[in-house]
Amino acid sequence: MLETPLEKKAGVNFGPPGTKQLIYFVDDLNMPKLDAYETAMPISLIRQHLGWGHWFDRNKLTQKNINNTQYVACMNPTAGSFEINPRLQRLFMTLAMDFPGQVCVWRRVREKAMHACVLVCLCA
User: Residues near 88 by Cβ (< 8 Å), separated by ≥ 6?
Assistant: First the structure.
């Protein structure tokens, strides 16, 4: 699934088509089930890619260098393990945000240049 948008560049190098950048969005980073060794295989693959810049082809058992990619992840504070592997967390910039309060007022703002509606939260 991670390799679907990638194309072969040269040799063992892979990346998004042309000169584009690819951003992987990982929803609920803290949700994968742990195996008998207290690891989560999807998390280990992401950690290997971020730490070393490659992963391995499971059929040919060769290295694949993955270029021009980034990761954005989020965690659900009400479900999951509430902790992630510190070896993975050190590779991310971590931001913490609370849920908006009860006093939030939502209003619709029309942006003239883009003609798109945007929701803005005005918290007291």
Answer: 43, 46, 47, 50
Residue 115 belongs to some domain of the structure: no
Q: Total structural domains in the chain? A: 1
* pTM exceeds cut of 0.90: no
> What is d(CA 10, CA 70) in angstroms, rounded to the nearest whole number?
20
Instruction: Give tens-digit pLDDT for 105-123.
Output: 454 434 433 444 344 434 3
Q: Are 84 and 75 in contact (CB under 8 A)?
A: yes
Whether 110 is covered by a domain: the verdict is: no
Residue 36: domain span:
7-96
How many angstroms separate the CA atoms of 113 and 23, rounded? Answer: 26
- Comparing CA positions, the residue from 28, 29, 61 lying closest to residue 43 is 29
- Taken in order 84, 89, 90, 96, the sign of the CA dihedral is negative
User: Any idea what the CATH number is for the domain that residue 21 is in?
Assistant: 3.40.50.300
